User: Fold these one by one.
Assistant:
Number 1:
Amino acid sequence: MKIQFCGATTGVTGSCHLLQTDKYKVLLDCGQFQGGKSQDALNYEDFPFEPSEINCLVLSHAHIDHCGRIPLLVKRGFHGPVYCTKATADLLPIMLRDSAYIHEKEAEWANKKGQRKGEKPVEPLYTVDDAERALALITPIQYDQKIDINDEIRICYDEAGHILGSAITELWVRESDGETKIVFSGDIGVMDRPILRDPTFIESADYIIMESTYGDRLHPQNAMSIQQLVDVVLRTVRRGGTVVIPAFAVGRTQEMIYEFNKLYDEHPEEYQELKDIMVYVDSPMASRATEVFKENASVFDEKTQEYLVRGDHPLEFRNLIFTQSTEESQRLNEDDHPKVIISASGMCEAGRIKHHLKHHLWNPKSTIVFVGYQAEGTLGRHLIEGAESVNLFGEEVMVKAEIVNLEGFSGHADMNGLLDWAEAFKTDPTFFLVHGEEQSKKNLAKLLRDRGATVIVIEENSEFELKPGEKLSSSETTVGGDSLAFDYGLSKDELHMLRNKISEIESEIGDVLSSAELATGKKISQDKLVRINNIIQDLDSSIKELRSVLVQE
Ligand SMILES: [Zn+2]
């Protein structure tokens, strides 16, 4: 069996790995690359496999960096089943239609601009129609059920505790020379989080494909962040301000609703102060996602189930209002009665949140509370880093509101969480580390090796042959990847040309040096000097060529 790492190899997005036996090709995830122009360009490249040859896709969860290229895969010829949990199947229509809509809008916008410059029209990465065709392939399966997806491969989904429907996948691959067990972690969640069950600890595997997002960081305690959230709401309301919470529509928003439900239900003293304070969820996508949460209560954790048994839905309370229309959304900023507004997008890059920021950032009475990761370069990141003013809709807005960053609400296990999960394995497996920045992967690798584990850090798109009963060595590095293409967005042909040039030059240098004259200090003939000179010229022009390609990017 072969395993090919095709995404989330140099960073945390674009999750995509291919398992290949003599008979079958199974894809694990098909995520979108995210994070600026260079990452976005990777989405348009060819897949390092033929989409029509993939027999099926096994999806870990509904985040776009894990599922966002499925419609593209379908557009390029894939037509097999897409396996996922039932809750993921319910979230995918929201995620993929929204993503397709954004791609269509972006292309439309680029074409309007390009037309004026006389440029050729660009195609969206995929359309809403492509997304619909992908959605038709979804094949939901239950957690904890062993399912034969063909005559060689059996899978089982276990709770990952990361977002609703998220799964850790166990795969048993039976080939003529024996059986191999692979565990794909997907994204691993945090213990004791609201609503979701804890991530599953698994004891046996031969190989583990493991995420390492926070391989070098620890999170503050979640309980501390909840207390801070309560404090910040009270002090904002007392001074007559509004609390604005940018939150991801799927996951974090529901977690916020859960915490506010608790605050309103279980704290009668505070409630006296808050009984006229309404909590608005102002994001159509978040409203739809909340409905999906309610329909999937069977996968909630025990504590949340207890709420339901008592007849108190944890995602409903008297002061909670979901706004739908644009008019309703605009009306929120017409009166200045204190309130809580939860809106998307979580990093303030798009969506209704930008309007709320425009209305509240200048107001020293109001507070902006961040409850999720803010990527470099985003408006959210600028705000938590203390920007004095920001540009919104072409207008300079002073930042006078209180800015609070609560870090305890992560959906990803931190360094200790990852180590605990990895240490549960009792079978001395080999770890392939993916889905992390370089430092994070290296740190986790070191910690695991210190504990005696065999670890391979995946640093570029690469491939490994796995043989039952044979172990890969820990020091083995990745081979034959396209890291240049990934770092610089070179096309396959450009990369191929560059490689050929470099190997030509290398062999010439080898010829010259292996004649040993240089090493022995003998006089170099005129003929050889000319050859060396030519090699240097070649090298120089190759570098220039490479530069010009990079400048075009
Ligand atoms: Zn995720």
Number 2:
Amino acid sequence: MAKIETTRLLLRPVSRNDVADLHDIFSNLDAMAYWSTPPHIDLAETEAWVEAMMSIDPREGEDFVVECNGRVIGKAGLYTFPEIRFILNPNSWGKGYAQEALTALVDRAFSVHQLPSVDADVDPRNEASLRLLQRLGFQVMGRAPRTWNVGGVWCDSVFLRLMSRGHQVR
Ligand SMILES: CC(C)(COP(=O)(O)OP(=O)(O)OC[C@H]1O[C@@H](n2cnc3c(N)ncnc32)[C@H](O)[C@@H]1OP(=O)(O)O)[C@@H](O)C(=O)NCCC(=O)NCCS
């Protein structure tokens, strides 16, 4: 699996050595406020995520650990094509890192994987993600209520899409 270098970041394949850093993120209540699963309580939950990330069929998706200055600050990728998902440690928010990582992932989705579009499914309360995606050119395609049951609470979805240039409707 490829590594992607951007101005400030390295996006690389996950390894079992990343479990502790990723657990810091997946157990963080702020980072997980609008995720599709509850925050991780046990390290074993994060270990299972890491195993799942490592066993993605490259024909079906790819997911990266995001590093900045040698430190793991998050995870981003298209775990299942064409849906993009991303999460950063709150101590790395507000610096444009997510925008930098997603710009590279979207470019790769269109140029390497030749996807006609990249999609996102975001909780309508998740303003930071909606702002980020719309800044990257994603457009709202629709909304649906009660799409995710997260720890017994129903959450809604906003569906967004970015078309590749070659597939835009003229
Ligand atoms: C979604 C998430 C990654 C966004 O993080 P973020 O740091 O706000 O996103 P960006 O990289 O776009 O950074 C934008 C902010 O950095 C600031 N910034 C600073 N330097 C910047 C730079 N060089 N370039 C761009 N923005 C910069 C911007 O002004 C902006 O600040 P604002 O939000 O106060 O307007 C983060 O909130 C998160 O991890 N959330 C939890 C996980 C989640 O909900 N994921 C979505 C599930 S699909």
Number 3:
Amino acid sequence: MSHIFQHRRARHYALVLLLGLFPVSQLIAQELGDHQYTSEAIQAGLRIYSRECALCHGPQGDLVSGINLRRGQFRTAQSDEDLRSVITEGRAQGQMPAFNLREAELSGVIAYIRAGFDPDGVAVRIGNAERGEALFNGRGECSQCHRVNGVGPRTAPDLSSIGVKRTPASLQLNLLDPAAAILPINRPVRIVTRNEETITGRRLNEDTYTVQVIDSQERLRSLIKEELVTYEISELPSKSPTNLNADEVADVVAYLLTLDGQGAAQ
Ligand code: HEC
Ligand code: HEC
């Protein structure tokens, strides 16, 4: 028994490291509580899946053509709500039958799908992308800093193709705990040059002799390090954790996942 337990812990750690949340892993696991499914739900989902779904969809979730449940490729469904209605109502005149599952079984099987069929994985809730877009441009205040498809300021990273660059888990983490999610290259900088100009901004690139930053006026600046009096890299992220609630975070993550770099006016 204790052997199995240790094995699980080890896998959990490996995943946590991958997501880059190592230093605060325990804290995050608790804090995220209602933003994602529990590991109990995911493991219950594995049992339901094997019993009810594997017959048609296969152990890897890829036996129905055009659908790969493990990779999250569906024909029409996007959000967790969509998955709920597919499972409870059925599809294609009963070729996909309607299931009468208990609530815990239903969310378990969705959690198992969202965790990529990994019973020890992390399943992030994916909400509704349209509501997420409205929150992004409205109450979430994301568009005050971020640019998408040619619209918005350049002071924060452009998110036009963020959906293909990052995992759902890292997008969610960025909203809930920006300090844990920040990439080294994105760290804010404060620079003072020899002629006493102070530049604050975001680092884009750096090599041994030069550093490129976007300053607070959105200008691209390339600076020679030897000519700088001060060059400070902040450990702090430029923003606080979002005030959006768990459902709204799930919606914003759904919207970010649709940003695939194919949008208008790149
Ligand atoms: C009897 C075979 C069968 C079983 C059992 C079955 N499915 Fe399906 N499922 C299908 C078929 C066929 C489709 C494609 C329907 C269509 O043509 O849109 C499908 C489609 C889906 C889709 C994709 C819907 C979309 O919008 O793209 C999901 C998600 C899904 N099934 C989940 C499940 C889950 C979860 C279970 C178990 C609770 C399950 N299925 C059990 C046959 C089955
Ligand atoms: C005050 C400005 C500001 C606001 C508001 C803001 N962000 Fe950010 N965001 C940043 C900056 C700057 C970074 C780069 C990392 C850092 O400095 O913390 C960033 C990083 C990110 C990243 C990671 C980019 C990458 O390359 O991995 C994502 C995703 C993101 N923000 C999404 C959002 C969403 C969604 C919202 C709204 C809920 C939001 N941000 C609100 C400034 C902001």
Number 4:
Amino acid sequence: MSVTSSQLLSKVKQDIAEVTAEQVQKQLGAGAEIHLVDVRERDEVMDGYISGAALIPRGFLELNIEEDVTMDRSAEIVLYCAGGNRSALAARDLAFMGYENVKSMIGGFKGWKDAGYQFEQGGLLSEDDMQRYARHIILPEVGEGGQQKLLKGRVLLVGAGGLGCPTALYLAAAGVGQIGLVDADVVDKSNLQRQVLFGESDVGRPKVEAARDRLLDLNPGIDVRTHYELLTSHNIYDVMAEYDIIVNGCDNFPTRYLVNDAAVLTGKPVVDGSIFRFEGQATVYVPGEGPCYRCLYPEPPPPGEVPSCAEGGVLGVLPGTVGLMQATEVVKLILGEGKPLIGRVLLYDAMDMKFRELKLRRDSECPVCGDNPTVTELIDYQQFCGLPSQSEAAG
Ligand SMILES: [Zn+2]
């Protein structure tokens, strides 16, 4: 005996429970605990899906429902597809697995959309992004969801010098969606020994412009914003407002304190790095979770005590190592995975090829993040002696 598709569907729909889009909308509005599951294929979901729905194509539903949605057989589950047929068949199969409270939404996503209810878009990566980020997506700690977080990441690099260059390259390659570069310098021939964003033909160009061209060539899918200016108390809040994480690749005192204070006062994490000759270090300052720069160095040294303001030498490969420690920490912060360098600093000695870690503590007397802060406004410290500019200082 055989049955037609339509006979099968009408039989299945008698056996399972169905709900209308209106009922689902009301229940969700009332805060009911419903597990919404979208069983359509990838290309269908690209046009939109209901907020909060788990996206599991019909062919993977029985295999993934326990891990992606719930093991609880009494949980309330509402399945939907495009028009309400595939979700009905899917409901029958979940019932077979012992799920007791499964419903299929009549009319599917089309019905939901036609009723004028809200939905979300951009829930899935495009085919192009699936290819580009395949080696990320295959990692369980990243996956498609983690890649989406990276694509929504907004990171400001202070300084497009020795540290900023490798950090920017790898963040762009990793798909960090919005990268800002602040630097007031032009490319100099002596930069090319280590500032790997630039080439011979960039000499004389503003670093931020040359950097943007290179980063967009590497990954045209991201947004690269340029800030061709020095950071001061007048512009830093405006510049920082567009970003969630600050990467400090500068090593002059005025900018370092300015970035620290602005980050503490706005609650934004700073991924810090510095280099000198053959040594480097990196740490992460997260307001409320660990110390800030002023916890360690409450005030800048008086101008007379700054050892030497002449440009020091730096081994060309050194900023690559430290810049990539910073890039790694940024990626972890965006993904919310791993243990960031909060409350500890990683020291690197290139000559001995040794890494060392020191603990850092928040100081309750800290002038900016302490219990009774005295620094409540931004301070423009003087550029004492001929300190190199933001990017130069970091090599
Ligand atoms: Zn502090």
